Amino acid sequence: EPPAQYRVVDKVSVTPSSGNYVEYSNETITVHGNVTFTSAGSSPIYVKSGTLTITGDEDASLTLKCTSGGSPVQISSANTSANLVLAGGVNFTATRESTVLAIGSYSKNNFETAENYSGDIYLSSKSRAINGGNVNLKTSRSISLSNNVNQSLCNSRKYLTRGKQCCDRGSKCFSNDQCG
User: Which of 14, 22, 103, 155 is most exposed, with the fewest beta carbons within 10 Å of its own?
Assistant: First the structure.
């Protein structure tokens, strides 16, 4: 029998003894195991305001997929400041199967990694991988941004990645030793 993609418990004080699940507490999502959320409508993660941190150990992964509707991750609206931070070693994937962004954001918002983040980051869309806001991604592992159209991968006010691969504001990708 395949493992569950996510786990819901009856009591918040009860921790599952095994399996894949997420916990949410104090603006932090902690990922245990390999968790996938798939949506055919709204964004699986929408950061309305404040800072949402996604964390987990190096055995953990969070995959967000949208088959239609919105972006896998939406960081606030145009008039609000919000942040999404990746921490720990959790691997993070956001994919969109059409011409909608993988990460939607606005100028006052940030998508970044915490100090010493060590997970893989994979963002994919048939449009831009990231649009808007400030992007600052650093990892000792890999960062992969992809699309299959003739558009830049990113359109953000400030964009910096450090990992095994990084991309500038356009579609140029460099090896880690060439990142700023």
Answer: 14
Q: Please say whether the beta carbons of 100 and 62 come within 8 A.
A: no
Query: What are the Cα distances from residue 136, in Å, to 72, 120, 156?
Result: 19, 14, 10
Alpha carbons 163 and 123: distance in angstroms, whole number: 14
pTM of this prediction?
A: 0.78
Residues 6+ apart with CB under 8 A from 103: 71, 72, 73, 75, 84, 94, 111, 123, 129, 130, 131
Q: Is 164 left (phi over 0), alpha (psi -120 to 50) or beta?
A: alpha
The alpha helices in 10-156, defined as continuous H runs, are: none
Tens of pLDDT, residues 104-156: 777 778 888 999 999 998 888 877 777 777 888 888 888 887 766 555 555 44
Q: Which is nearest to 155 in space by CA: 122, 113, 106? A: 106
Handedness of CA 74, 157, 91, 174 (dihedral sign): positive
